[in-house]
Amino acid sequence: MQAGATVLNFPERTAAVSMPTHRPIPHHAGHRERLRHRARAAGLTHLPDYELLELFLFRSQPQGDVKPIAKALLTRFGSLAAVLAASVEELMTVRAEDTRGRVKGIGVETALDLAALHEVAQRVAKEPAIRRPVISSWTALLAYVRVALQHEPREQFRVLYLDKKNQLILDEVQNRGTIDHAPVYPREVVRRGLEVSAAAMILVHNHPSGDPTPSRADIDMTKQIVQAAKSLSIEVHDHLIVGRDGVTSFKQRGLM
Fold first, then answer.
1. Is residue 56 exposed (0-12), middle (13-18) or buried (19+ Cβ within 10 Å)?
2. Higher pLDDT, 16 or 226
3. What's the per-residue H, E or C state across 109-172?
4. Residue 21 region, left (φ>0) first, then alpha (ψ -120 to 50), else beta?
5. Helices 49-60/67-77 angle, 10° precision
6. pLDDT of residue 133
7. pTM listed for this prediction
8. Per-residue pLDDT tens for 104-156?
9. What is the set of domains in the chain, with CATH numbers?
């Protein structure tokens, strides 16, 4: 450096030091694996309903905490069976808030998965009724109609059409109605029996109120169907009313 030269002093630049950030660990971290481990070790039968729902929701929602959603579903519909019986549209109205205050709902994919699970349950319950004569397999019949209708939120009228051996030909929903009424047309019920070559049929409908006691309208409608079917040599074996409190048989009550 030459004499007399001006010396310029520049401040040293300090390298930026990034401080580690400590993000809080979510309370549900590891919960999925812990729940799966308990299910494997102790068996699914030991899990409460909300945890059984969680296991199923893990597949529909691969990330996040699904426990609030499982509990919200049971609170909204009242029971596991009622959750599965709910429609896709009803399931999609459910909202749940997690511990961080975030609100999460059920999308169409999750709702469809739950509806599919209900359909599987119905088909499994239906198999014994298909393989054996319905009348001689009374227990299987009651199990099937309860799975199909016990938790339906709207009244539904369906007919089980049977062949000469009392084996199931067709289970058909004739009408869906409101919370306390489903329109029934006796001529349509019998006409459909002729179309499928039925020798007999069992009438089934539900009471969303939960009480399976027949109304006066139920009794009158049954008599009309019995009379119309008799003229065409189709026998009506029974009329079953399904409610959360049980199943009522018109034949056992002497109403037909």
1. middle
2. 226
3. HHHHHHHHHHHHHHHHHHHHHHHCCCCCCHHHHHHHHHHHHCCCCCCEEEEEEECCCCCEEEEE
4. beta
5. 120
6. 64
7. 0.58
8. 788 898 999 998 888 888 787 767 655 556 666 788 888 888 888 888 888 99
9. 32-116 (1.10.150), 132-249 (3.40.140.10)
Do the Cβ atoms of 247 and 145 come closer than 8 Å? Answer: yes
Mean pLDDT over all residues of the chain? Answer: 83
Residues 221, 226, 229, CA angle at the centre, nearest 5°? Answer: 125
The pLDDT tens digits of the residues spanning 240-252 come to 999 988 999 999 9
**DSSP assignment, residue 181?**
-
3-class state of residue 46 by DSSP: helix
- Burial class from Cβ neighbours inside 10 Å (0-12, 13-18, 19+) for residue 231 reads exposed
State the first-to-last Cα distance of the chain, in angstroms, to the nearest integer: 121
